Amino acid sequence: MSEQINSAIRWARNRIEACSDSARLDAELLLAHCLDKPRSYLYSHPEESLNPVCWQQYQRLVERRLQPTPIAYLLGTREFYSLVFATREQVLVPRPETELLVDLALQLLPPEQSMRVCDLGTGTGIIAITLKSERPMAQVYATDVDPACLVLAQENALRHAADVEWIESDWYRGLPRTLRFDLIVSNPPYIAADHPFLDQGDLPAEPRLALTPGNTGLEALQQIIEGAQRHLVSGGYLILEHGYDQQTPVADMLATHGFSEIHCEYDLNDLPRTSIAKRVEKAKSTA
Ligand SMILES: C[S@@+](CC[C@H](N)C(=O)[O-])C[C@H]1O[C@@H](n2cnc3c(N)ncnc32)[C@H](O)[C@@H]1O
């Protein structure tokens, strides 16, 4: 007997519950993907029988979900800021909290001005591509140390016709020393290497390079803040996403490196998530 849509979803949900808090949603997304239909189709055709090829594909995807493989890798896409981005293993899955960083960046980029922006550690390219889509006049640069990220980011840029300058670089190292930006943004790796969180949920399936920069979790933030002094114009801004418990050390590092107007914005879960600061030119000694 062939499986019906509603019983297939029940079967999958019961299995996926072992690894996901959103088992029903995951089960529906995977089945809609196999059927190449919107999710609403599942509700309008609950008793439709699945053909054997579709049922087998579904079973394979559910088994992979249990490994666990993040749903975005199985579907091959993730929505961010109302745009659809290709996702794939070896590149971090875009997170909704990063939309806050984009909102803050857009507030600093007037639509009619050609400001120069750099996204450090671009991953799938979500930040750079969204900024270019929203602010076509901006000159957007994006870097990553991992060539696999840059390949995927460029695919996503093509998908959204976003003209971004992609540079393979260990933070600022691959950038021309004289290149200066009006705005630098980054969602760097910021989880401490021994944090138990790294072993939970879907995180073990995501690239460690994208999640942890070292023992304290602050190493990448530190390097980005240090280098920003050289690569920001005077009066330029730095926007950094960080851990909910890193607001104070990030503010301290920014202050140590001479930034002003330092403040932190809270994400949708009301957690301190994204810090902003302005670069001020150091007064030249007259002695
Ligand atoms: C947390 S992920 C963010 C990805 C993407 N910007 C986003 O918000 O989804 C951090 C990114 O930084 C990159 N990265 C890690 N170390 C780096 C380094 N030394 N220089 C440049 N990029 C680095 C990783 O490859 C990864 O793509």
Key words describing this protein structure:
287 residues, alpha/beta, Helicase, Ruva Protein, domain 3, 2 domains, 38% helix, 20% strand, binds S-adenosylmethionine
How would you characterize this protein structure?
The chain has helices at residues 5-16, 23-35, 40-44, 52-65, 71-75, 98-107, 126-134, 147-159, 208-211, 219-231, 247-256, and strands at 77-80, 83-86, 116-120, 139-144, 164-168, 181-186, 232-241, 259-266, 272-279. The model has no long low-confidence stretch (mean pLDDT 96). Strands 5-4-3-6-7-9-8 form a seven-stranded mixed β-sheet, sandwiched between helices. A two-stranded antiparallel ribbon has the order 1-2. By secondary structure, the protein is an alpha/beta fold. The protein starts with a helix and ends in an 8-residue tail after the last strand. The chain has two domains: 5-68, Helicase, Ruva Protein, domain 3, CATH 1.10.8.10; 88-279, Rossmann fold. It binds S-adenosylmethionine. The site of S-adenosylmethionine has 21 residues, from α7, β4 and α9.
Question: The CATH topology of the largest domain is what?
Answer: Rossmann fold
Strand tally = 9
Distance between the termini: 90 Å
Shape: elongated
SSE string, helices as H and strands as E: HHHHHEEHEHEHEEHHEHEE
**CATH level-four homologous superfamily name of the largest domain:** Vaccinia Virus protein VP39
Integer tally of domains: 2
Give Rg in angstroms. Answer: 21 Å
CATH architecture descriptor text of the largest domain: 3-Layer(aba) Sandwich
Helix/strand-derived category reads: alpha/beta
Discrete helix count: 11
The overall pLDDT average reads 96
Which segments are poorly predicted (pLDDT under 50) over 5 or more consecutive residues? none
| Strand order, sheet with most strands | 5-4-3-6-7-9-8
Q: Level of helix content?
A: 25-40%
Ligand names: S-adenosylmethionine
**Main sheet properties:** 7 strands, mixed
In the CATH scheme, the class of the largest domain would be Alpha Beta
